[in-house]
What we know:
By secondary structure, the protein is mainly α. It has one domain (3-224). It is built from eight helices and six strands. The strands form three sheets. The protein has a two-stranded antiparallel ribbon with strand order 1-4. The protein has a two-stranded antiparallel ribbon with strand order 2-3. The protein has a two-stranded antiparallel ribbon with strand order 5-6. Strand 2 (53-55) and strand 3 form a beta hairpin. Helix 2 packs across helix 5. The longest helix has 27 residues, at 15-41. The chain is globular, with a radius of gyration of 17 Å. The N and C termini lie far apart (42 Å).
Amino acid sequence: MGWLKAAGELEPTTTAEKERSLTQLVLGRLVTAYVHFHYICGVVHDDMHTGNILLTAEGGLVKVIDWELAKVVPLPFEARSTVVLRDGLTWETLKPRSGAIAVNTRMLHPQYGVYRKNAMIGDRGTQCDSVFPACSCQYPYETMLDKQYLQGAYIGSFHCNLFGLALEDSWEAVRELSLSIHSRTEVYLGPSADRVKGFWATNASLSELSATPPIAWLPAQEQQQGDNDQGDYDDSDDIDGDYT
Length: 244
């Protein structure tokens, strides 16, 4: 494909290196695009499955299509207003303490973690189980954006194996990307890079970025309706875009 070369990166020599580099490249471009949509345009897509993301053949640039379910939201963008926590969880209980969050894993949804709704809602990530059943991909807002813009809304959210990288390895990959974010240009991040650079995490915030995720949880494979022995989760596969 030559996407990494076009982005100014060295071509990986192993499959593992390619998976890691492609994960960093595409997620960096997706977050850049969505920061522009959210924080500058005041628009939330709310239907972010893989069929609505196009990557150009030549350079792998991100194009987002099918905006019929999109919502216009007030600016300045309030990240918390577009996500819905699971019953029993509050923003106070999800505040990191000593770099980690103590939360009962039984309170977490198997696929959505601390959230009650599908990752498409609020543009937290891409629904990708149509690519392969165990696919999960949330966006690394929590490592890339500054705290004042995050409002804690995406804490413990990020995991992504869409590009072959193992879920348990994806945090370190985006941590590495985040630590280099201030040196990344339009060539790597895409055409919105200059517009959104003021939203990236400060060097002080990046210095505090943990080497491990704040919540020790990995998303499970999506269960088919009626095929889950934990029936209380069935009705939380809510993709109606209602944030209330």
